[in-house]
Amino acid sequence: MAATQVAASVLARARSGDGEAFRQLTEPYRQELQVHCYRMLGSVQDAEDLLQETLLAAWRGLAAYEERSSVRTWLYRIATNRCLNALRDSSRRLARPPVAAKPWLPEPTHRGSEPVWLEPYPDLLMADLPDRAPGPAARYEQRESVSLAFLSALQHLPARQRAVLVLRDVLGYRAAEAAEMLGTTSAAVNSALSRARATLAAEVPAGPDREAAPAPGSALERQVAARFVRAFESGDIDAVVALLTDDVLLTMPPLPLEYRGAAAAGNFLRAPQMASCHRYVLVATRANGQPAYGCYLRTPDNAILHGHGVMVLTLAGGRISGLTRFTDNALLPVFGLPRSLRYGGPARRPGNTLTAPAS
């Protein structure tokens, strides 16, 4: 049976109420739809919630699917509009926890007016992402479109502009297709895209940095990451600063604070609550296609390490151009990391003697 006939058969069975057929119809797009929702919302949990809302809406609305577009495009239309509804829903957005002041922090180089609601996204959730070629209008490759720099810049866009930019420049839909998905005109899409690109250009530095990051898992990436871990865990702030680019950016979402430049980042790391960073142990993971670490704070007897959030590195060549610190411990389980660990002492390397404590 030809592929088109198989697809038609699956769709017909799904329309008749066959849940397994519906799963077969939508499962190939599940992971990329969740990443799409993450780009739109900046939150792992919100992305999962909106994915479920999208699939439920698709199941309920399957009878109205007219097959004028592919199933994939139809699902993206539902997901995008659900995300827009969520972004407009003030009760959902105001449910975010308040941002506590940190009086010990040194003065930043820039202080934003609004919290930056952005979380890291585990690479494990993208491991089986289909390698689909984006449409001809796409400007960003898959790797760049999930980077923290790109996602952080997206958060500065109004919801409609954010949707247009993702549909056009990340997924590569044509203006007419994006207009159909958003229920608007091609002229409105092009206007929103122009404004979104201008904002993004101001937020994400242009130039060679877009291509400067070493390949994931490469020898250079491993070398830089290993040097950082050694310096950070030993509390050697000078060695950490020596690894930073001159224009490094240190941020701590959701705090709307930026520390731009090696000197400002060094001042932050030397602050009283950070100067004792030799009390930390870093456990390697990956987020947004970048090296990342679960951060654990040693207790005085070194027996138990308590979780202290996640840190993500952005690399440029052989140096670090970005340090993003997320202190929410709820992120640790998202990365498959426990909230606390037993510690085997300084001799843990090259072997790893970190284990989850007995319950």
Automatic annotation (TrEMBL):
Residues 27-93 form the RNA polymerase sigma-70 region domain. GO terms for molecular function: DNA binding; sigma factor activity. Pfam families: Sigma70_r2, Sigma70_r4_2, SnoaL_2. Residues 226-320 form the SnoaL-like domain. Keywords: DNA-binding, Sigma factor, Transcription, Transcription regulation. It comes from the Bacteria. GO terms for biological process: DNA-templated transcription initiation; response to stress. Signal peptide: none annotated. Transmembrane segments: none annotated. SUPFAM superfamilies: NTF2-like, Sigma2 domain of RNA polymerase sigma factors, Sigma3 and sigma4 domains of RNA polymerase sigma factors. Residues 148-200 form the RNA polymerase sigma factor 70 region 4 type domain. InterPro entries: ECF_Sigma-70_Domain (IPR052704), NTF2-like_dom_sf (IPR032710), RNA_pol_sigma-70_dom (IPR014284), RNA_pol_sigma-G_actinobac (IPR014305), RNA_pol_sigma70_ECF_CS (IPR000838), RNA_pol_sigma70_r2 (IPR007627), RNA_pol_sigma70_r4_t2 (IPR013249), RNA_pol_sigma_r2 (IPR013325). Interacts transiently with the RNA polymerase catalytic core formed by RpoA, RpoB, RpoC and RpoZ (2 alpha, 1 beta, 1 beta' and 1 omega subunit) to form the RNA polymerase holoenzyme that can initiate transcription. NCBIfam families: PRK08241.1, sigma70-ECF, SigX5. Belongs to the sigma-70 factor family. ECF subfamily. This is RNA polymerase sigma factor. The lineage of its organism: Bacteria, Bacillati, Actinomycetota, Actinomycetes, Kitasatosporales.
